[in-house]
């Protein structure tokens, strides 16, 4: 039932996206700002429908910041998106999801082919322009979805623009109290979502409730980091995230 409600909520929010497209006529930056606002509304609704209780520690990112976070599941998008307005960098495969791919594009999501160094250079140049225009960008620098136990080494290619502009970069760490949240087993989004809801349902129910115990998500932000060196910036961000990171399971 909750997955059905999530689909309905996503469809409702998608009705707002044509407005973002109209705003984008003559200004891609304006479209991305409106898309980030729509994403924030969608994300808060998704967390409510799925049953995720979010706790936020630390100062939230400000407009024009570049946010980097660990990545363990598709829910990370909703957790981060509910906390602040931002445009996300995502893997190219998400653009091909039926229905969702179109919504991601209109909402201002930037896609990258992780296997192509040329595509990384292309996106890095675009990011510099977006950051200069004051957009808030969010990225998962591990280059993939982690297993919730170990944090992978951060990739530095997309941080070139942030370093050149001395953009404040905010380290973020996400942790869930349910290990089944992790999505690194090659299953589809639908398969993982159904498995996640079954795991949630098996947990102790709230008195008088109609669903399992809420999933507790903790989002921690560290103070912004700046550096004009891409490699140093990457190393400092990875160190900050590792300090906040809590293994799951």
Shape: globular
Helical percent range? 40-55%
Question: Total helix count?
Answer: 9
Overall mean pLDDT: 87
Q: Compute the separation of the termini in Å.
A: 27 Å
Unreliable sequence segments: none
What is the β-strand count?
7
What radius of gyration results from the CA coordinates? 18 Å
Estimated structural class:
alpha/beta
Account of the 3D structure:
By secondary structure, the protein is of the alpha/beta class. It has one domain. 44% of the residues lie in helices and 14% in strands. It has 9 helices and 7 strands, in the order αααββαβαβαβαβαβα. The protein has a 7-stranded mixed beta sheet, with helices on both faces. α5 links the parallel β3 and β4. It starts with a helix and ends in a 5-residue tail after the last helix. The mean pLDDT is 87.
What are the defining features of this structure?
alpha/beta, 249 residues, 7 strands
What would a concise description of this structure say?
The protein is an alpha/beta fold and 249 residues long. The protein has helices at residues 2-14, 17-23, 28-50, 75-83, 100-106, 117-132, 160-165, 189-202, 230-244, and strands at residues 52-57, 66-69, 87-91, 110-112, 137-139, 169-176, 215-221. The chain has one domain (2-244).
């Amino acid at each position: 039932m909750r997955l059905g409600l999530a689909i309905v909520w996503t469809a409702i929010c998608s009705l707002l996206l044509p407005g973002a497209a109209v705003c984008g006529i003559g200004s891609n930056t304006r479209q991305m700002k409106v898309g980030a606002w729509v994403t924030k509304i969608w994300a808060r609704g998704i967390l409510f429908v799925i049953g995720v209780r979010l706790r936020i520690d630390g100062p939230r990112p400000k407009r024009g910041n570049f946010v980097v976070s660990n990545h363990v599941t598709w829910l990370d998008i909703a957790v981060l998106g509910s906390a602040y307005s931002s445009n996300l960098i995502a893997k190219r495969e998400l653009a091909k999801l039926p229905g969702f791919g179109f919504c991601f594009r209109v909402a201002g999501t930037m896609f990258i082919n992780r296997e192509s160094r040329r595509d990384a250079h292309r996106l890095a140049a675009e990011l510099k322009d977006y950051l200069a225009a004051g957009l808030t960008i969010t990225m998962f620098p591990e280059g993939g979805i982690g297993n919730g136990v170990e944090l992978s080494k951060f990739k530095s290619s997309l941080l070139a623009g942030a370093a050149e502009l001395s953009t404040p970069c905010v380290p973020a760490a996400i942790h869930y109290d349910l290990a089944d949240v992790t999505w690194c087993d090659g299953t589809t989004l639908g398969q993982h979502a159904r498995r996640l809801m079954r795991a949630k349902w098996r947990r102790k129910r709230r008195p008088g409730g109609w669903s399992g115990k809420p999933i507790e998500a903790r989002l921690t932000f560290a103070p912004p980091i700046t550096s004009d060196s891409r490699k140093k910036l990457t190393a400092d961000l990875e160190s900050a995230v590792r300090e906040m990171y809590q293994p799951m399971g």
